[in-house]
Amino acid sequence: MPLTAGLDWLLDRTVVPGYSRVGSALRRHWWPDDPAPGALAGTTVAVTGANSGLGAATTLGAARLGAEVWMLCRSVERGEAARDEILAELPDAAVRVHRCDVSDLAALPDVAADLRREVPRLRALVHNAGVLPPERTVTDDGHELTLATHVLGPHVLTDALRGPLAADGAGRVLFVASGGMYAQRLYDDDPEYTLGDYSGTTAYARTKRMQVHLAEEWARVLEPEGTTVHSMHPGWAATPGVTDSLPAFDKVMGPLLRTPEQGADTAVWLLAAREARETTGLFWHDRRPRPTSYLSRTRPSPEHVRALWNFCVRTTGVPA
Ligand SMILES: NC(=O)c1ccc[n+]([C@@H]2O[C@H](COP(=O)([O-])OP(=O)(O)OC[C@H]3O[C@@H](n4cnc5c(N)ncnc54)[C@H](OP(=O)(O)O)[C@@H]3O)[C@@H](O)[C@H]2O)c1
């Protein structure tokens, strides 16, 4: 194993150095090149939860590469405030705000219909929106909130936008998952978290694992259409989400947390990287594919992954 590969492996297995800003500071010495300037010129990218943290950083990163970016935000007001900050930093950026609550399954078909009208060709759809609720919360559609936000909403939106993604000819879908998913197995037997005492961090980690395996299934389904699908984890970045949902972690890890730009680095890189076209269905961190499980007890069988897919199809009615 070359020295850098060994060090990279060590960073991954020791977690704290790898996930913190130490990881990206070291790995940038050997990771693949940055996308060329203007690599996304003439393309359109859509980012959910684009008004805060990693979503805003992904929007800025994609705009810097020349993409028109549709910021899909549940609050237009917060979206416009974030857009104005981006424009202050990058006055030429082509950024537009569109209302989209990804957990509101009933509203997504109309949102997607608007997008299909406005965006006939979509280079990338980034499923970035994320939540870590303190208690079990149920959406108007009757789904547990992390499941609706991380899994069912992205599933519906991916299906609804597969036309514009295919029309681009180099379309890609990206799920922003979390390293926290390593701690959990695939809960296809209780996806709505109805059993046992509810823990927001457990629900978050379970649904982040679902995202990774849902991405694998979508990769298989969209391959004939020329669209690739990947998932990634950002490590640990200082964002409003971390400060609000994990204050103790934020306090302890503070100086070691990545900036939002460092956390969003792999997401932005995957939007333009050749590697994300030549492969599909992989899980990335710091510009390199990573294993999806380190423990046999968290490694799902193909039947479990299939059960997750079937659950999503049965619950949402898509793909038809
Ligand atoms: N920061 C980290 O260290 C870290 C680590 C691992 C994974 N992640 C993942 O990275 C992603 C971004 O997280 P972040 O740290 O940047 O957190 P954040 O600052 O809280 O941003 C989350 C974004 O998601 C939006 N959102 C939540 N529910 C939504 C919904 N139903 N529809 C549309 N947008 C919604 C939020 O909108 P509002 O402003 O309206 O609430 C906000 O814009 C998440 O998927 C998270 O799980 C982050």
TrEMBL record:
InterPro entries: NAD(P)-bd_dom_sf (IPR036291), SDR_fam (IPR002347), SDR_member_12 (IPR052992). Signal peptide: none annotated. Gene3D superfamilies: NAD(P)-binding Rossmann-like Domain (3.40.50.720). Pfam families: adh_short. This is SDR family NAD(P)-dependent oxidoreductase.
